[in-house]
Every structure is written in C-alpha cells, then in structure tokens.
Design goal:
6-stranded parallel β-sheet; 14 strands; about 450 residues; binds nicotinamide-adenine-dinucleotide; Rossmann fold; about 15% strand; about 45% helix
C-alpha cells in the first residue's frame, strides 16, 4: 500500500474528493460501477461540472497519478479508501444498499491497517446499527465517518477549505496516523476528531440548520413583501453583522433554557399575530416563524412540569437558583423563574428562590426592582432567600444561571446535594462524589 487514495463512487461527492486529492499531488485510484464514468475520467473529463476539475485531471493524467479500476485495485494500491456512493432517502429512512455493498467488499478484501473513510451521508444511529457491524470480524481495519459539506459545483474548493473538518473515529483521542497525514496534506483546516455518533449528528444538525435558515428567510421574505418592505435589503442589514455581532451562529445556541425576558417572548407573540393576519396564514400555520412561539412555550411547559413532578409530594419546598431574567440584571418581569413560581402557587407548593441580585435585599429596594409589577413585588419572601437555604431545604432545585466561583464554593461548603437538581446551564457536578438523581 502506498499513500495513494482510492475513491469509490464518482458522483458529485466522489469527483470533488478526487479532484481535491489530485490537486494536492496525491495519486488516486478512481472506482465506479459505471464504466462510462471511468472511461470519461481516463480521457480527462467528468460529467460532474466541478470548477477546476479539467485542469486538475489533465495534470494528474500527464503525471501518471490517476488510475481507474475496481474496488480490489483500490484496496490493493491505497492506504486510504474514500467511499462516496449514494445513500438516497427512502421515505424517512436512508437506503444504504449501495454503501453496504461497497463496505462488505472492503471488509472482505482490505488489508489490515487500511483506513476506510465513509463520506456518504449516514444518519444518526446508522453506523452503530447497520454499518460498523459489517466490520466486526475485521478489527484491524480503521473505519472513519467523515461528514462532508460541499456545494455542488464548488466541491473541490469546499473539500480543500471546508468550514470545518470532522472525522468520526473509533478512538478520537488516537486517530489513525494515515488519516491524520491525509487530512494534513489535503485539507486546509485542522481536523476535529469525534466519536461516530457525534459525527453523524454534526452532519444532521448542520443541514437542518441550513434548511431552517432558508425556510425562515422565505417566510420573513413573504411577510415583508406583503407589508411593502423589500426583504433582501432588510435581511442584509439585520444579519450582516461584523465580528462582534450577536447573531453569529454559535451565539444563543446553548441547549437548556428557553428564551424569556421582556423582548423575545413579546416579539414572537406579535410576530405570531402578523402571521395569523397574513394572506399566507395557512403556510405560516405550519411554518418555522410560528414555531418560534410554540416550540419555546412547549419547552417551558415541559421544564416546569418536570420540576413540579420531581418536587411535589415530598412535603419540602421547591427551589430555584437564578430568578432574574438575565444573570447579573435585577429584573424579574417575564423571567423564566416566574413560570415556575406561578405553577407552584397553582398547586399550593412552597418555593424558595435565590438570586445574587435579591439575596438579603430589603423590602423597599425589592419593591423598586419590581418596577411596578405587583406580582413580582408580592414575591419578596420567596425570592430573597440565601443560597444555602435553597440548596439544603428543597427537594428539587432548578439551576437557572451559570454559577459564579463564589456560589460554587458556597455550595461545596455545604457538603450536601438536593435530591433532584435540574441544571439548565451545564454547571457540572457541584459536589465531588455526591450526585443528585437528575440533571435537566
Ligand atoms: N453531492 C454532494 O455535494 C454531497 C455533499 C455531501 C454529502 N453527499 C453524500 O455523498 C453521497 C454520494 O452523493 P453523490 O451526489 O455523489 O451521489 P451520486 O449518485 O451522484 O454518485 C454515486 C456514485 O456511486 C457509484 N456507485 C454506486 N455503487 C457503487 C459501487 N458498489 N462501487 C463503485 N461505485 C458505486 C454510482 O455509480 C455513482 O456514480 C451521498 O450519501 C450524499 O448524501 C453528497
């Protein structure tokens, strides 16, 4: 075996990977069931109109770095074999017939140590359930799942310079050396090695996010047009932020708390009203803009119900850490904590709550912080509790903020944990060696 790369499946994906490898000076063995594609390739052409492919093929053929053949030739000649055959949708499932056929052949013919990179898209759970078992009898082979993100037509460039390079491997801490070298030589961004399942999910949520953005743009586009506003202009300004922008993809994307506070819930509600009044209201009824409201509300309700279920019946209070709508801000109107407190009051359950903004605050200062909201003002006794009391006296504690180092130390000094903790902010274990029964 040499440092040659075998590419099995010469569709849009395979041609992109082949072009990228050849561009970086690698020798390749190209394989496809369709002999016409192999003949085209040998003549320096491809049916896939990838930018730059013809010049790359011409150079590679002139230098004798491109051969065509079958899977047996690829396994014999190459240290790394990339598999990019089709995995079409079959209803809500994926049809892995073609992929499994190739992998079965590789499982029986590949020499030990060969790295098999699956570039074909597989969906969450498929590797463990259907794909990896093909290799059970071949522990000497290195099977890798690489979720690939390509734009048709610009696939070579995208393979060389992707937004991210991800590889799902058996042991992410110790990926195969042949793979590391391949990525270093061919792809111009550093690789992130993860487990198989993580790689499957990264592909899924990446594409779901793109679909969500497109659906969102279509819906707001239709709504704006209906109201006489040109969508392209406002979308450009609304989302065209610089490096300090707050809408960058990663911001706000922390699974845990639903949104709350004085702005987002109100704005989603008003948007809901605009959608209902629109001439497109039937579309919007099933749309993503409407889901801004329904999804968030459902998430809130589920969290509240879980907290009640865990805490009720014990005879002890229910606890909340973090009552302000935003950490470090002394405002409780529209905070998530109010939903929990209201629900507990509805079933006559006692709540003890702590927030650094209100701990030990005097009644007058709290009345001012309530900003004329009489319900918030009525919660003085509930929400001015010390952290220690909430932590020690409650059956279930909702952790609704990222704890400061001081708060963590205060909790650790108590040497105890509530029976149930629902942590919305991934604070991690709060007591070494002692665990609550549940996390959010
Ligand atoms: N097209 C893209 O830009 C893109 C991007 C990301 C992921 N993917 C994924 O990559 C995979 C391939 O997509 P595509 O669009 O290139 O598919 P495609 O249908 O265009 O090409 C698949 C090729 O595999 C060949 N093939 C099938 N079985 C074979 C076998 N046993 N041996 C050799 N060749 C075989 C077919 O003849 C065909 O040429 C899919 O899973 C797809 O979801 C594609």
């Amino acid at each position: 075996m040499t440092s040659s790369v075998g590419v099995i499946g010469l569709g849009n994906m395979g041609v992109s990977v082949l072009g990228a490898c050849l561009h970086k000076g690698r020798s390749c063995v190209a394989v496809d069931l369709d002999r016409r594609k192999l003949a085209e390739l040998a003549a320096g052409r491809t049916v896939v109109p990838e930018h730059g492919i013809e010049a790359i093929l011409a150079t590679a053929l002139a230098e004798g770095r491109l051969q065509t053949g079958d899977t047996a030739k690829a396994t014999r000649d190459c240290a790394l074999v990339f598999v990019g055959v089709q995995t079409p949708a079959a209803g809500e499932q994926c049809d892995y017939t073609a992929l499994e056929a190739v992998l079965r052949e590789l499982a029986s013919t590949s020499p030990d140590g060969q790295v098999i990179v699956i570039g074909s898209t597989v969906f969450p759970g498929a590797l463990a359930a259907e794909i990896l078992p093909i290799f059970t009898a071949r522990p000497g082979l290195e099977v890798v799942y690489e979720p690939v993100f390509l734009r048709a037509g610009y696939g070579i460039d995208d393979y060389l310079r992707p937004g991210k390079l991800v590889a799902g491997t058996r042991n992410p801490a110790n990926p195969p050396a042949v793979l590391e070298r391949f990525f270093r030589d061919v792809v111009e961004v550093p690789a992130r090695y993860v487990g198989y399942a993580e790689a499957e999910w990264i592909k899924m949520i990446h594409n779901a996010w793109m679909g969500l953005k497109i659906s969102f743009a279509n819906e707001v586009g239709a709504l704006c047009t209906e109201h006489g506003v040109a969508p392209a202009d406002i979308i450009d300004i609304a989302f065209g932020e610089g490096a300090w922008g707050r809408l960058l993809t990663r911001s706000h994307m922390k699974p845990g708390p639903p949104y709350s506070g004085p702005c987002l819930p109100k704005d989603a509600q008003i948007l809901g009203g605009l959608l209902a009044a629109s001439k497109h209201h039937e579309w919007f009824e099933q749309g993503v803009c409407r889901a801004l409201r329904t999804s968030n509300e459902k998430h809130r309700q589920d969290l509240v119900q879980r907290w009640l279920n865990l805490g009720l019946g014990s005879g002890r209070p229910l606890g909340i850490i973090g009552t302000a709508f935003r950490p470090g801000f002394n405002e409780m109107r529209e905070s998530l904590a109010l939903d929990f407190i209201r629900a507990a009051q509805g079933v006559d359950a006692e709540v003890l709550a702590y927030d650094p903004m209100f701990e030990g605050i005097d009644r007058q200062a709290f009345a001012l912080a309530a900003r004329q909201n009489t319900f918030v003002e009525s919660l003085y006794d509930t929400v001015s509790q010390p952290l220690e009391r909430v932590w020690c006296d409650c059956e279930v504690v909702l952790v609704n903020r990222t704890l400061s180092d001081v708060e963590r130390r205060r909790i650790q000094a108590l040497g105890t944990v509530p029976r149930f903790v629902m942590d919305l902010y991934e604070n991690g274990p709060l007591q070494a060696g002692r665990r609550s029964e549940v996390a959010a």
